[in-house]
Amino acid sequence: MGNCNLYKSDYELITMDQDIKCTSRHVKCKEFIKEKMLCIPETNPDIEQLTKVIIKPKIISYEIICTPEGPKLIIKGKIIEKIFYIDDTAGQCIHCATFKFPFHNFIKLKDYVCIKDIKIKLEDVFIQLCNKRKLEQSILILVCIVPKKDCCNCKPKYDYKSRCNCKKDWNHNPKCDCKM
Hints:
Layout: E1 12-15, E2 28-39, E3 47-65, E4 72-87, E5 94-108, E6 115-129, E7 134-147
Parallel strand pairs: 1-3
Antiparallel strand pairs: 2-7, 3-4, 4-5, 6-7
């Protein structure tokens, strides 16, 4: 990210995520980083020191899509974050700035799965004060797919891996009259 001078800041970090104790070999996980530059709203005073950061990740939606490389799980979510800080005034009051921002990613699947649950955990959070109004942030996110034990017919209606007799390319119209 950008060039930020490191301001020493001791603050409390609270993550409101899920406890992931995935020991099953069937659980598929992926880590990724979400970087974000946060700007304190103009209505708030400047930051002197961070005191507390509360972060909650949330899965909004997911879907399995077919691709020529195989099935992929597309995950969309959001991060809700509250940053508490002491202002840079003589009164040194505590203020709060709230941020919401999206994230999305995908997980390659070996096969089609019926999903029982998707768990999300923040493995690491790095926040650095760049100046009195900007914070640089990097969050390491872990997402795990917990499949159902007895899988129903979870295969999507159309599979790009199977070719039809019309000899068209892999992305032909799923409503093609050919016999698959």
